[in-house]
Amino acid sequence: MNLTKAFKENNSIRLGLQATTWQEAIKLSVEPLIESGAVVEKYYENIIASTEEHGPYYVLMPGMAMPHAMAGDGVNRDAFSLVTLKEPVAFSDGKEVSVLLCLAATSAAIHTSVAIPQIIALFELENSIQRLVDCQSPEQVLAMVEESKNSPYLEGLDLEG
Asked: In its keyword annotation, does this UniProt entry include Kinase (predicted)?
């Protein structure tokens, strides 16, 4: 599972959107994956239910969330989407998020061994959140993903598949 390939195949980069609640923001992040057939509507419902039960466990750093639910449940194929919001939304714990990188994984192994290192690499770029929010086109986001490929987190990973 490769970020660039997933974004292109699923046409799943959406920039400068508006949401008033965290639920709306999650919906916006899952919609491109529903449209591409990577996930079914149930995946969105699973994320909401899981968030209501466990809290927003996927807010990984200030300004950024990686919404996802249990691997495989409602997922047809591995995929990512990236959504930026004009104004941040607050989750139940008060944390505000303006970048959502939705992960759909068919297995837990893909989630931890392939997806997470790529996400860390992207978000360890200096000012990554603000830079992503400032992106005006999917091409600018893809350029940041390309820039992140020099990260030590990605050493030894096969990202061609």
From this structure: yes
Number of helices (H), then strands (E), belonging to the chain: the values are 7, 5
Query: Would you tell me how many other CB atoms lie within 10 Å of the CB of residue 31?
Result: 19
- Convert the pLDDT of each residue in 117-136 to its tens digit: 899 899 999 999 999 999 99
pLDDT at residue 111, as a whole number: 63
* Cα–Cα distances in angstroms (integers) from residue 46 to residues 54, 63, 133, 138, in the given order: 12, 22, 27, 27
Q: DSSP string spanning 94-127?
A: S-EEEEEEEEE-SSHHHIIIIIHHHHHHHHTSTT
Active site residues: 68
| pLDDT over 80 (residue 161) | no
In CATH terms, is domain 3-154 a member of 3.40.930.10?
A: yes
Q: Is the Cβ–Cβ distance between 79 and 12 less than 8 Å? A: yes
Element (H, E) at 25: helix 22-36
Cα–Cα distance between 6 and 56 in angstroms, integer?
24
